[in-house]
Design brief:
mainly alpha
Length: 127
């Protein structure tokens, strides 16, 4: 009964039970989303819910440890170098809303269900 991020859930359980998870560089996966800024907020809310409820993952395997900040800084630098400064505002706004969504989701236990239904990409999850 997870809201998403089931791949991390399964991989974590497998590792804890002695299985091995392998990186296969030749594997090809095509996965993309064309989310609006609001949809990305909702997605990151759900990801925050997952990690807020499944704290055993961070306890056993650690946290991302600033990777998000490094990624955003590299994206801003790449946009600047590509002379795409007009996209900087959108990037900063989008990233800020992702962070806000994640943090709100992580603390979802303090929110009433009707709020969770409004901000989640999966309102049906909140029965």
């Amino acid at each position: 009964d997870v809201i998403g991020t089931e791949d991390a859930y399964v991989a974590g359980r497998m590792l804890l039970h002695g299985w091995t998870v392998r990186y296969e560089s030749s594997a090809q996966v095509y996965h993309s989303h064309d989310y609006s800024i609001l949809e990305e907020f909702q997605r990151y809310f759900d990801i925050g819910v997952f990690y807020g409820r499944e704290r055993w993952i961070a306890n056993n395997f650690g946290k991302a440890g600033g990777e998000g900040k490094r990624f955003v800084m590299s994206e801003i630098q790449a946009l600047w170098q590509a002379r795409q400064s007009r996209r900087l505002v959108e990037t900063v706004l989008r990233t800020g809303l992702k962070l806000a969504g994640y943090r709100l989701g992580y603390l979802e236990r303090y929110l009433p269900v009707f709020v969770k239904r409004c901000v989640s990409k999966f309102p049906g999850y909140w029965k």
